[in-house]
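Listing S7. Sequence submitted for prediction.
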Amino acid sequence: MDFGDDQEGGSESQQQQQRRKRYHRHTPRQIQTLEAMFKECPHPDENQRAQLSRELGLEARQIKFWFQNRRTQMKAQHERADNCFLRAENDKIRCENIAMREALKNVICPTCGGPPVAEDYFDEQKLRMENARLKEELDRVASLTSKFLGRPYTQMPQGMPQMSTSSLDLSMGGGHHHHHQGLGLGGPNLDLDLLSGAASSSEMPQFHLPPPVTEMERPAMAGMATRAMDEVIRLAQAGDHVWVKIPGGDGREILNVETYDNIFSKPGSSFRATDLRVEGSRDSALVCMTADALADVFMDTSNWMEFFPSIVCNARTVEVLVNGINGRSESLILMYEELHIMTPVLPTRGLSFLRYCRQIDQGLWAIADVSVDMQRDVHFVAPPRSRRLPSGCLIADMSNGYSKVTWVEHMEMEDKVSIGPLFRDIVQTGAAFGAHRWVGALQRACERCASLSSLGGMHADIAGVTAEGRRSMMKLSQRMVSSFCASMTASQHHQWTHMPGAAGNDVCVRVSLHRNGDPGQPNGVVLSAATSVWLPVASDHVFAFVRDESTRSQWDVLTHGNQVQEVSRIPNGANPGNCISLLRGLQSSQNSMLVVQESCTDASGSLVVYSPIDIPAANVVMSGEDPSGIPLLPSGFSIWPDSRSGVVGGGGASTSAGAGGPLAGSVVTVAFQILVSSLPSSKLNAESIATVSDLINNTVRNLRNALNCG
């Protein structure tokens, strides 16, 4: 039997299918030119199509088909608009129908004068059945609780919550019950509601992304991205007439808004509302990463969050509009991100924007961001309080593994949220979200990546930790820092409660309660507590004092005054303060616990994050095994440089610099995360929160005394 003809026919059909599957995705610049021509002439003749073909580098047949598809799309849009009108009329009639049915429910029976029999009777029966089921469930849980406590479980009077007493478990990792007990604070025990569940991450409001991009929006977005790219390149290369150097700002520059408005004037933007504030800044630096690798970081939201955990608390790719070469050059995506300052005092900034990546030349990349200038944002969140004007960076490869990054950050803020005096100068001067902070964080992240990749050639240290063990320790510490930064977010999904200060305390503490169930975190109910204070001490001095293991006993309440020893140390940057340490308490009762600590600093601020782990978990890490399953519950400090002549402290106390000029100071945020109970359902009362507030107040008091702040 001869199958040659069949095979030949099959190969021809496969070739036809492959030919049909081939398609070409136009670049944003081509789409912009075609759209401009379509507005002038929806039916171009053969000569016009030939001219477009030469200008755009496309075949005449592609031009013809694009205009045919665009006319079909326009017709479909008109039909869609008609359908929307008819749907609105249908919804109006449906609402009237519902209103009429509601009115019929209030009709009085003509026979007895009472209301007619409705479904409420059956709803009451359902409630009675549900009530009986809940009583049976209550009796079952009470029986289990009695077996667990070893004594009868006495139920409270009806209508009162079931309560049981449990001591405060201050362990910061799953199953560690000894490191943080005995605070010496004289605080009361915690009363835990065993039957009322605490809010879990799965029960929190879900993160809502913007709606998908419609076909009608795509051309407009492509045009916005192209214009933003041109503006970012011009701003990055502009001279002193656009940018003004900050005196004593280490080369930092801020935008001359008046000059910018004259050069980059846009239709309809001649006048800016008085309540709008412009934040524009530019900074540049060398980073130890190639330009291609940096472009990958910018276009991948997971890497974007991993590189900037102290700035970006949430980021998502809404839609990939254009998938360029290798996912980089000529790529256009719609992103949503939330920016934060790592304090419960200030809410996050939510931004929906386009990100456009283009390779200008060999080794030269440009990234442009611009907020979506449409009313589509109001469909998924409240109208945005801020928007990103054309921002981004130029990345020039230096051919030695380094790249020069010139960062432009340009935002327009609507001052609807009152900013307290503690962070007012930091936010309004642009230090909170300016280019200087982004560049500093990028340098730190690139140095960290370089340190991680260079561990292969290192020998074991004094403690016997191998290169694999150091790599595992760096991965564990990176997860610890990311978890700490995420916990210090004041977003709509992470609410904080302000606790009034007790008598004699000038520190205002904010607390947040949530239930953990994610991998790498201890299961149970976690209490987060934080406060921010101003100290008349330079930020680098505060950072050096807090991260130094020899002075830890002066501020750490939980060490009980005992000294701490550094077991192992892993540098992860050029600055000696950028390192990961493994600490051990010298007291015999603390030998079962170790502390992982990471400290990092740059000109824009510093972080000191730590979390206790037990010795078996430390052995897993130092042997080079996967640390992703080790539970961590980090605490730490966020330190901002700040200079002022006087400031209102966290609870109203004022610190003055006297008659002199500005005093070098710092804004310090102190945060603790505490595993309250491993039970999946528990509820805190005022006494338990007061105990944690004492922990925060004592830590701040010890810092002030040790740094001679008074």
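Caption to Listing S7: primary sequence and predicted structure tokens for the chain studied. The first helix runs from residue 4 to 21. The two ends are 100 Å apart (CA to CA).
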